[in-house]
Amino acid sequence: MRSRTVTSSVQLTELGFGAAQLGNLNRATTDEASTAAVDVAWDAGVRYFDTAPHYGLGLSERRLGAALRDRPRESYVVSTKVGRLLEPTPEHAGEQDGHGFHVPATHRRVWDFSRDGILRSLEQSLERLGLDRVDVVYLHDPDDHLQQAATEGVDALVRLRDEGVVGAIGAGMNQSAALAELVRRCDLDVVMLAGRYTLLDQGALDDLLPLALDRGVGVVAAGVYNSGLLSRADVPDDASFDYLPASAELVARARALAARCAAHGVTLPDAAVQLPLRHPAVVSVVLGTRTAEQVREGARRASAPIPDALWAELEASGELRGVA
Q: Which residues are in the NADP-dependent oxidoreductase domain (predicted)?
């Protein structure tokens, strides 16, 4: 699989493995299914794996580390995130986590973008992953903590990068404006953008993407299905958009896109996966994956032939904005 360069020491495969679902996102999965998904991704050529402490209160990191344990360390890239410390809450161990992950509430998440908080978070992540280093560290969802993240947080990450502890630093968010502000103010290498450069939402063309290209900051595109609306060739009535029920207008737009894709022998999710990589600032598309079959389908979508005529038609119709 082709890779794109972030820094001299970090290259990301164009398709990345998003490991949130290994943390039992929305429903439980097993260690065996998680390992099988990673194994199939490896066989497909994927060498970029993304996780975070937030995902299942560390379960995603533990499962990902276990699945990669016997792989040559220099042959893959792992990113994790900082900004949410996990503090033990044994008194709630018999309860369910209330953040969408089907795990016991053995810990609570505490926002902390201070230098000490970042160092503690990274140390704990390394322990869960069973690694002595990670390649990329993102500030995780600093929307409501932007000032601390842009100063103390970035300063801590810059020091870690300068010391060779990590290869690249950045931030990950579900909005483009704040990421653009961080790119404008800070010395970042890469950012992860979820859901804002898709077939249905190209808002990042207004701020983040041109700025990232100008500053030489790589963009990792996540949430390319907008949480479900673009994930199926036949769009159902009850599809979701950004984790909420999609409006009738959005469902109609998605179906119109699907029809245009079908006329060119392409499925809607094929185009959804491949669109971001058409922008020169984008270095990887990360797909959230739970099962081996989902990995196979994601890899197939990423490599499906898409005629230039489809992209030209979508631009001519106004459904897709040009990059220039």
A: 14-316
